[in-house]
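seq as requested:
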Amino acid sequence: MSEISISCFNTVHARITTEPGIAKEIQEYFTFDVPNAKFSPAYKAKHWDGKIRLFSPFNGLLYIGLLDYLAEWTKERNYVLNLDSTLTDKPPTVTKQQVEEFLTSLQLNAHGKTIQAHEHQVDAIQAAINRERCLLLSPTASGKSLVIYTLLRWYQDMIPPDRKILVVVPTISLVTQMKSDFEDYAKNTDWNADENCHSIFGGQQKMDARQIVVSTWQSIYELPKSYFDQFEVVIGDEAHSFKAQSLTSIMTKLTKCPYRIALTGTLDGTKTNKLTIEGLFGPTLIVTTTKDLIDKDLLSTISIDCIVLNYSPEVCKTLKEASYPDELDFLVGNPARNAFITKLAVSTKGNTLVLFQFVEKHGKPLHDLILAAAQDRRVFFVHGETEAEYRESVRQLTETEENAIIVASYGTFAQGINIRSLKNIIFASPSKSRIRVLQSIGRQLRKSEKKDSACLYDISDDLRWKSHKNHTLKHFVERVKIYSEEGFPFKMIKLPLISSK
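struct tokens:
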């Protein structure tokens, strides 16, 4: 009977030893088409076949996080699997009671009040500690920052004092917010976030004596392997959004880092990205779902108004051959459409987030229109060039406001930003990204004293001409499918955009 032997190469890879024919089979099993590869210059130039291969027969290396998939595959084929004892699952060593006692010792605080972790958070913390490697799939607004803080405190007590913990996030805003959250959680204790955490983004100093490093992946992925040898623990937040090459660059340099935990609210549905993240961190564990949290009254209820703007036949005929970029340019520059968004934004009650895609040709004009029409409401403008300190001040100010409007780019405020008092969101720009949609909705589901329900206004554009369906309308159909799958209530509202030209 054919045998496959697996040994530990380092904390990133396992080494597979088997006969050449089986090694080739394993390579084929871990080979996947990359979505949209045909648009890549390398693919067009025929330098790349559009596939990603997670196993190479030449060096026999496979990400340790994929061993469960390999074990399942070998079982189906009746191959004998010889697994090195260092790679076998360890029995759970930390009980739920121990985790609960540790959480009690942290004296958790949030917004001036003593808090307790929810059961799904306790379960996630226990699983992460016992598994040592995992991808925690937990929806936006489920309290991932508390899970991260607890894990940091746990590992600080466990690892040698000369070893460090790396927290990797996708945006500058998340670096500042995370540190702010840590300060808030520790307010009742003598643990100090500034004394324990070093933040890295932009051109800030990479080396520091503090044990915890919180960094954007963009700031460190090009650093040499020697920099990463200091880390014993890595935690990746919003892991779905890391660029694959950059994530791989960081994680494969962490060859002395046995504890690997990723957290994300959603995955994009592609097997390639999921297996890459799982390979570098560990198998997926579903912590909870948005619907469960709403049913348990831990999140706000949500209603979605799907507003379909109808255009004149003349406009639809003119745009029937338009490319996707040309259609977007028409929509974001349409005066009547922007006037409608402005009127909608200023008519809302409560804190409102208006999300756009393009800064110069859409965000700035929208901000100017809303600022002029908002009268006595405070209006903020945030985009990629906005300083981190200002972004954080806007977030914190909005917590005390009751009727502010934030005009923000998807990249800065759709992901990771925590605004508990956010009542309304307006999708001002079309989007087809499942992750972006769910992350954006998650922004407003957090409950606060000021609200227990939320509203989403999803603006779409019907530019159909005869049998031709326009690009962004197809994307809207995909968003509606997401709402149905997630159990979010929605209604359709069709409105004519009379003044469009």
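The mean pLDDT is 89.
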